[in-house]
Amino acid sequence: MNDPIPVVEEKVLVLDFGAQYSQLIARRVRECGVYCEIVPGKVKAEDILRERPQGLILSGGPASVYEPNAPRCDPEIFRLGLPILGICYGFQLMAHLLGGEVRASAQREYGPAQLEVLQPNHLFADLPPQLRCWMSHGDEVVALPAGFVALARTANCSYAAAADEHRHLYGVQFHPEVSHTRRGREILYNFLTRGCRCRGTWSMASFVQAAIPRLREQIGAGRVLCALSGGVDSAVAATLVHRAVGNQLVCVFVNHGLLRAGEPEQVQRTFGEHFKMHLVTVDARERFLACLQGVEDPEEKRRRIGQEFVTVFEEQSRKLGPFEFLAQGTIYPDVIESGTQFAATIKTHHNVGGLPDNLGFQLVEPLRYLFKDEVRRVGEQLGLPPEIVYRQPFPGPGLAIRILGEVTRERLEIVRQADAIVGEEIERAGLHREVSQFFAVLAPIRSVGVMGDHRTYAYPIIVRAVTTDDFMTAHWAQLPAEVLERIATRIVNEVPGVNRCVYDISSKPPATIEWE
Ligand code: XMP
Q1: Residue 137 among the catalytic residues
Q2: Residue 9 has what pLDDT?
Q3: Is the pLDDT of residue 477 over 70?
Q4: Which of 72-76, 151-155, 344-348 has the lowest mean pLDDT?
Q5: Are the beta carbons of 142 and 110 closer than 8 angstroms?
Q6: Can you tell me the mean pLDDT for 281-296?
Q7: Helix (H, G, I), strand (E, B) or coil at 310
Q8: Which end of the chain has less neighbouring CB within 10 Å, N or C?
């Protein structure tokens, strides 16, 4: 771990017991202006003290406290004097460890419930006495530990919320972090401000302000290399590092010829001309085409592109070096997903174009504690244009995996032109922020058509547009018929070699978003 953690005045830790909602809890806390990190549920009390948090949140989780391998927290955490909020399993664990009783509910509860607040308290301060909340549990607390009182109940759950306000210990059986719990954010806000006495000073402006001196301290007089892909994460990371150390940073942009129309020019305009960074653009189009010749298998394409990328990047690093540091756009979900969650013991994690571990650099990862939406806001703070800040995701192997079968110069040109038309028409219809991802795919088959008096025998273009929150599941976008018609007419008329256009109406699962 080379990166200093961000300097923050206030911090809350989420102890994770395997909840699907832990990330959501962390995001909600940050939305309240309090910096928050996710740590493993079993973290030791002394390690927590070292982090100096203002409070702890115990997450939910799929286990039952009486199961032999149920995840536990260090019982010492309840003696630290820190305010603690237990959510669902976290509440049950707190009750169990402090002498209460937990049992399988007579009625398992999944879904909305009406919450009735029983007495004035910090957690529900300034909120109405009846609230809609979201329940999702099989067990519940049936006897409170000594010192606790019930704060709220539902029809099926006597202890929907409870607290020992002297010890600043709170528990809720429902999920305040999900949007189905109306006013859930205010409940978390109350815990943070009234329970933990946080002021809520964490913002992206304060992040940038704190990150720059920390980067200067970390990098010193060293030289930094960064691979720019045109994507938002590497763009924001590079801009932040540049703001800190200027031209000690050298950015390399590998134009592998698999990019969308206008992308290489935009990278040059933004980073080279506007920010005046030391930007080296490598024209590697012929090399990538050559290494993809005759390759049809999607995984083989990915492998070859990844390998070629590393080769080109290493050549540049030798030519432009020496460098002590490599800047990367790793973000917090990458860190969490790599399973190395606790700041003090985090190991390195790579997410740039498949760069291997052994390049011999120290890593600079200024965004490794930020969620995607926070990265975008940092990008805005730094003055990056909206085309980059709100760019839709684009796979590393680029258009190569949007050409089914062999990648050729002709097919690349076709798919690039068709993709530009899809983008222009969706933007013209004002749908580009609503639809999560939209693009064209070329199928390596030909069908018969007629143009004027001539028979044509040409490729079809598949148009794909999806809406999604997390890209793990997705729905096909119900684009208005007139938008689809304009796209189809333009593609068939303007792109030579295409005589037919089809719209993909599959959702994920069972399909994936990309075709390869
Ligand atoms: P799928 O096709 O798996 O895509 O539903 C989910 C998201 O991931 C993107 N994607 C990739 N991104 N390298 C990347 O950097 C890849 O090889 C790759 N394959 C898919 C895809 O565009 C979508 O946003």
Answers
A1: no
A2: 82
A3: yes
A4: 344-348
A5: no
A6: 97
A7: helix
A8: N
Check whether residue 296 and residue 279 sit in a common domain: yes
256 and 380, same domain (yes or no): yes
| Catalytic (active site) residue 177 | yes
Whole-angstrom distance, CA of residue 225 vs CA of residue 361:
9
Tell me the one-letter amino acid at 347. Answer: K
Pocket perturbation via mutation, ligand 1, pick of 466, 514, 515, 516 by most ligand atoms within 8 A of CB: 514
Residue 3 has pLDDT above 90, yes or no: no
Judge if the upstream peptide bond of residue 385 is cis by omega within 30 degrees of 0.
no
Tell me the sheet residues that pair with 291. Answer: none
Q: What letter represents residue 239's amino acid? A: T
Residue type, 158: S
Instruction: Examine the domain organization and report whether 335 and 437 are in the same domain.
Output: no
**Smallest Cα–Cα separation from 250: which of 303, 345, 326, 310?**
326
Mean pLDDT estimate for the chain:
92
What is the spatial distance between Cα 27 and Cα 408, in angstroms, rounded to a whole number? 44
Residue 66 beta carbon below 6 angstroms from any ligand 1 atom? no
Active site (annotated) includes residue 88: yes
Judged against a pLDDT cut of 80, whether residue 356 lies above it is answered with: no
> Is the full-model pTM beyond 0.90?
no
Considering 177, 186, 263, 374, which one is annotated as catalytic? 177
Cα dist from 410 to 394, 413, 459, 496, 497, whole Å: 21, 5, 11, 10, 9
* Residue 511 in tokens: 């399909």
**Arithmetic mean of pLDDT, 300-317:** 95
Domain coverage including residue 220: 204-389
Nearest atom, ligand 1, residue 396 CA: 15
Q: Which residue has the higher pLDDT, 465 or 357?
A: 465
Helices (H) and strands (E) in the chain, counts: 14, 19
Q: Is the pLDDT of residue 67 over 50?
A: yes
Structure tokens at 69: 């391998």
Residue 508 lies in a domain: no
DSSP symbol at 508 = B
What's the CA gap between 48 and 43, in Å, rounded? Answer: 7
In this model, does residue 1 exceed pLDDT 70? no
Is there a single domain that holds both residue 209 and residue 350? yes
pLDDT confidence bin for 2, thresholds 50/70/90:
very low
Euclidean distance between CA atoms 235 and 10, whole angstroms: 28
CATH number, domain with residue 363: 3.40.50.620
Q: How far is ligand 1, taken at its centre, from the CA of residue 484, in Å?
A: 24
